[in-house]
Design a protein that fits this description.
Number of strands: 13
Oligomer: single chain
Radius of gyration: 15 Å
Helix content: 10-25%
Strand content: 25-35%
Largest sheet: 6 strands, mixed
CATH class: Alpha Beta
Structural class: alpha/beta
Order of helices and strands: EHEHEHEEEHEEEHEEEE
């Protein structure tokens, strides 16, 4: 299974058009959140991404809520399914998604979850599947200015469920970073899009 994964497109319409062109080469498209900018421009961005006909799985970032993302994709991106504390199976592969800023950010407009909320929602993640996240795990692809801004709950879930891959975004300075956490491959996707083949 070939996956095209991206994150943090933030109303970059030209970038979204490029992703739509690339999507024809993928079996599944993964969008790891932050489609708009502080809740502005979501519908316009999803209209552009709606050109993607490949089955797509997306999570909300901290710049949009899951409710708004579900409404926009239902209207303008029929091949996309929003996962936020839930999973699905595509091509025999279990996927599970959780979006939002984890842990909570200092911005009042941000769509965030506490570590406790994230821990509860991640309990249902399947073993050996694919995790789609907006926030990175603590200590991996989460560094900025000498600090680490990832989630302890996400790290614990990866260690517990051992997904094949975990995709995230959120920390722009770490776009493109890859790490191994045990047997799990982690990628902070970034907006350009990366192709990943499961099993390689």
């Amino acid at each position: 299974m070939k996956i095209l994964a991206f994150s943090d497109i933030h109303t970059d319409f030209e970038g979204a058009e490029r992703l739509a062109e690339l999507s024809g080469e993928a079996d599944v498209v993964v969008g790891a959140g932050d489609f708009c900018a502080a809740h502005h421009g979501l519908e316009e961005m999803i209209k552009v991404l709606g050109a993607i006909e490949t089955p797509s799985l997306v999570v909300p970032g901290n710049n949009e809520t899951d409710t708004a993302l579900r409404a926009a994709t239902a209207s303008y991106w029929p091949s996309a399914r929003v996962l936020h504390g839930e999973g699905t199976v595509l091509g025999g592969v279990p996927f599970f998604g959780l979006g939002g800023g984890i842990p909570t950010t200092p911005w009042g407009w941000s769509h965030d979850l506490t570590e406790y909320e994230a821990e509860a929602l991640l309990e249902e993640a399947p073993a050996g599947g694919v995790l789609i996240l907006h926030s990175p795990p603590k200590g991996y692809a989460d560094g900025r200015g000498g600090g680490h801004f990832g989630s302890e709950a996400i790290l614990a879930a990866i260690q517990r469920h051992t997904p094949q891959w975990a995709f995230c975004g959120h920390i722009h300075e770490c776009w493109g970073e890859e790490h191994l956490i045990g047997a799990t491959h982690l990628l902070n996707c970034g907006p350009s899009g990366r192709f990943v083949t499961l099993g390689e």
